[in-house]
Amino acid sequence: MTQERIRHLLGIDDINRETAERLLDLAESFLEVSRRPVRKVPALRGKTIINVFFEASTRTRTSFELAGKRLSADVVNIGGSSSSTSKGETLRDTVNTLDAMHADVIVIRHAASGAAHYVARYARAGVVNAGDGMHEHPTQALLDSFTIRQRKGHDFRGMKVAICGDIAHSRVARSNALLLRMLGADVALAGPRTLLPTAVDSMGCRVYDRLEPALDGADVVMMLRIQRERLGAPLLPALREYARFFGLNAARLKLAKPDAIVMHPGPMNRGVEISEEIADGSHSVILNQVEAGVAVRMAVLYLAASEPGAPTDG
Amino acid sequence: MRTLLDPESVARGLRRMAGEIVERHAGASDLVLVAIRRGGIAVAGALHHWLGQLEPHSPPLGSLDITLYRDDASTALPNPRIGPSQIPCSLDGRHVILVDDVLYTGRTVRAAIDALMDYGRPRLIELAVLVDRNGRELPIQANYALKTETLNSDERIDVFENSGGIYAVVQPKSSPTIPPGALRPEVP
Fold this sequence. Notes:
The complex is a heterodimer of chains A (314) and B (188). Chain A contains eleven helices and nine strands. With 314 residues, chain A is α/β, with parallel strands linked by helices. The radius of gyration of chain B is 16 Å and the shape is globular. Chain B has one domain: 3-Layer(aba) Sandwich (Rossmann fold), CATH 3.40.50.2020.
């Protein structure tokens, strides 16, 4: 019955199904905390959580900050431009500095794939990956599965999930595909051929270079943000063309099941990967994802910051 | 293992306790019953039943998970099972009866009081338990108890529910605990 504590959460690749389900179960009790009159529990009183975001982020950073605060931890945020990194400090030195301040958990977002693993190797603190380059974004995948569970039940077997857009550059797509496959879902990836990763076959998913076959009969449609910074490059000629062939609109959504849900990790490009009417429509669970984000991150931080010991009775 | 309370005496005792509660609170209109998970759930359910027999409107029944409020919340639990807390109404101005199976160190009750305060400001809080045993580590006492028992520190009280009802047994602390959700033994 006793299990190892989760010290680091670096990627879906590093956890097993049991741990994933345990986190999702735990998140359910934390969802209740966010809906009470006093949205705070004293569980992590006296613990210190440091959010280090070397990349811009609103919802993930805010979500981690609120999660920590609702557990009564002391939360400190460090941004890329305001940090010593801009003065030339190495990541290794930054980690050592934070460790010396007795941080219990370091939450890190970094543009380099593998940054969180690197930090975990040197840090005494627990490390949570909040997105590393094109590699993984495990808490996003967990909150997406949490949102799906709430709408579609706990059994993912036979559930058809379509993940659409820039698969190649998306850590959200990667973490989601790994987790959904682990939980037993049938995952289809769809995007322009230039935006599909080269080793896509190894992910155990169906792969299409058009949107329609992926949407066919889907229970869940997950749209990815088209990263404007990649625009103009040979990979992606024009937004209008992308919207025409790979944007989700009412006509295309008709291919999915009538009760399909539509998800988006945000921030959205309205009128590009998702039309206005779908983003605000009855199928959209995009704001539920945001609420789930705080609950899931509370569960992750709670397990990462707790120390093992003997429970007492009372 | 010896039986401390058999199902019959628990049923009789809880009925008497319900009467006492109604008398002290002049009816049940301001009352809210809150079970401390998981041990208090069965006891609160039975108490709720008897209150319903006595009063036309039985009071709201809720449950509270105190894991996150424990004084060892961040050190104790390698595998926390945090259940949902369900508080069915506002607690402002209400008379809250906290219900648990055994009052022992008092730490659980301390945590439960803290948790309750985050749901509102009750007019008063009382504590009802099946067994009040020695070993308090905090200045906390029960307002209602079916049985007061002095045990050795190496003994433990387990409360079970089976088809015959709720019962309490004393066993050595070293004996294995029954995991949550497992079948309760059909004794006595």
